[in-house]
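Bumping with the actual sequence this time:
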Amino acid sequence: MDYTPRDIERKWQERWAERGRYEADPDDEEATFVTVPYPYPSGGMHIGHARTYTVPDVYARYRRLQGDNVLFPIGWHVTGTPIVGAVNRLQKGEEEQLSVLRDTYNVPEEELESLETPMGFARYFIENHYKTNMRSLGLSIDWRREFTTNDERYSKFITWQYETLRDRGRLEKGLHPVKYCTEEENPVTTHDILEGEEAEFQEYTLIKFGHDGATIPMATLRPETVRGVTNAYILPEGQYVEATVDGEDWIVSTAAVEKLELQQREVIVNREFAGEELVGETVTNPVTEEEVLILPAAFVDPDNATGIVMSVPAHSPDDWVALQAAKADTERMAEYGIDPAAVQAIEPRSIIDVEGYGEFPAKDAVEEFGIESQDDPALEEATQQVYNREFHAGQLKAMYDEYAGEVIEDVRDELAAHFQSQGAFDTMHEFSEDVVCRCGGTVEVAKQETWFLRYSDEDWKEETRKIVRNMDAIPENTREQYYHTIDWLNEWPCIRNYGLGTKLPWDEDFVIEPLSDSTIYMAYYTIAHRIEDVPTEDLTRDFFDTLFYGPDAVETPDERALELREEWDYWYPVDYRCSANDLISNHLSFYLFHHAELFEEPQWPQGITIMGMGLLEGTKMSSSKGHVVLPTDAIEEYGADTVRFFLLNSAEPWQDYDWRAEDVQGTRDQLAGFWRRAQEIIQSEVPETQPELERIDRWLLSELQGVIRKVTDAMEGFSTRHASQDAFYQLEEVLRWYRKRTDLDRPGARWTRAEVLRTRLRLLAPIIPFMTNELHEQLVGEPVEDAAWPEPDPSLESEVVETEERLIEAVTEDVRDIVDVTGTDPTEIRLFLAADWKHRVFETVLETGPDQGAAMSEVMSDPELREKGEAVNDLVGSLIEVVRERSDEEIEALSAIDETDLYEEAARFLARTYDATVAVVPESETEASKAEQAEPFRPAILLE
């Protein structure tokens, strides 16, 4: 019977759907609840998504085999602007968007019109990509519980959540920096961003230099360097303005005007001009009152901050290199009417002492890194190195008066506030990198009157830390990432005035933003399929209070809510949430915060498993560039089990993996080989009862028990790669040896192979469910998922038998090595077994342990052994190494093994393997010099 994966997979897919196989309802079994972030259907599903959703499916299937009642639900996240933006781009006929839809995701031309509404767009990809592929992959999802975040009843649930948070003081209104799309004129969050997802808000200090009665503010992240400024730079071709900013006359770039306005500044533009006007002018340092020269520079970016920058060459490698370039460019200076001598006269000013550097740290760093130009990529690293060392260990020099001798890290904020109070400094916000919205618009920092979540509340943080302390963090090293995020999280704007989502209950001009409405939706899964029977208007605050807090929470509890509460209480808490590593800094931490506030400790999350990213042929996948593999195509070409096996075996879930077609095909071939060998066993006449077993059968069954233990441990820790490696590859190596060692037609061999296959199918069932169900049903008459997870049987384990087989394998390898090295085709093989006196030495070493001195002292107390002199000394050294390399269990097993009997069996195997005569000869019964090399359990070998 040939392996035809798609035929097998469609058969089981249809059977599961017809029988509602994975629809989970409360019963008497232990509950396991596993979730994964619901997909955002702003495009199609690619192979990276397939891995994301398969990892929790493996755990869900494993727990079912362990006897648990498992809930694995899925919903659809449509809140926010990405889908709206995608629809807008489609309606505009943007070629790039059309190309992604047609060429990457194969949307038929006649379907494009149906995508021109947000929910039409979402529904297309939900039905035609996500659900189709999830079913094809065999994901064991309870589809009754699906919902979208735009559903009326779900919105009622979110309304309850935010009314509760407001009443508990976890929401506050005020001015706050937000990411703001200038195209859509709307705040955005991480989910809405195309480029710059990791960009952070940076608060720049503006040093207010003076010029002819006006202020030229220059932005810096290092306000403590104000006394080291020697000059400034401007882009001559850049566009600048004279403007009145909050009543003061300022000179800034044209691009800075919008930034300042977005940050709640009142700006009136009075005049526009080219930066060239200011080249060669001087400005006054507001702290030192010194005049510094403005030089032309092509590296100045008018789009960044205010568009004019100050220079501190003693402490900034960037500025050091720029100043040397300016001094060398005498022709350019002359073009702008600047006396080159004035530029030559600019000298760096040392203001900070830091160990490891001389007077000018920037100069030392430039020389250390061998930097010769502003284009050198090492310049950024050198600059960061100086900044870091100065921040953490740099001490301000005497010119800083009361701050002299202080470490910058300790006084930066105080120093900046001091000069700001004197009117010398101001502030503005800017991003750490360029940020682009999915709609294509530029994203800027804006200050808005907004409602925000008070993640800065220390009591809230501490409750959330408590969850982290008690939960299972997989892998363990992610625990510190949660603590770090909890520590730095401050206020989080939770609303926007544009996009899909739940209206803010007390101000319907706003909707709750995507990350903020996605914190406790796992609770909604537990009742999503039953709450449909409750009219929307009945889903009041009291209804949800009753559902989640019980009958005592309200005066008149709703019986329907109490019924739903029973189901919620059965499934909660979430046992494991599987999610991406980059979501620790937002979604996953929000998930913990909101559970800490809204639910009692017994309902807090129990564990989170982190997943890595996917590569395609060595490079990052990109839907916009068409560099993706669609699960539909991969499943049709290789089969769903192959796709699952490759995704789960190529790396642990928390590691990045690389989808390579050649390797995937190799996996397909390996599964086909497994299928063929399984068919051989299934079609053989397997004895109904256990026949007499030989030692090799007992060895195989003993090895199997160890594999069961290892795979079980791996599955408990979501270690899918270890589980698949042990259940598939390790057992395959064991079976390959078994097939060499014995007559497979024996009744004992047929029974043993069938028993191993039956167990192996159950071990592999969570990973390759289609093939294992089919084979298990053929083998024993029932699907594998109706069986139980295998338990190790101690009665089948034998360290003696396993050690014996390792010794036979070792002598076989020794013979093969000699054959390979000598190129001989032996007709006779002699195995020389160590003399009795060598066994006495071995027993002594076993008693004394791997202590050379103690062993030699004991051995030399025997007159007969003492006479053997150097031979005993060499043997003791060799045997001590043997003891060190083996476990205590293996050493104990060696003492129970009959060496002669063992190698007599090995001789029969070697005779079959090499078609040669094999003799087992005690060292004491031969004069062959080779025999002297024999050691206990390591025969000397002679080929003829």
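The tokens above came from a reply further down the thread. The two ends are 45 Å apart (CA to CA).
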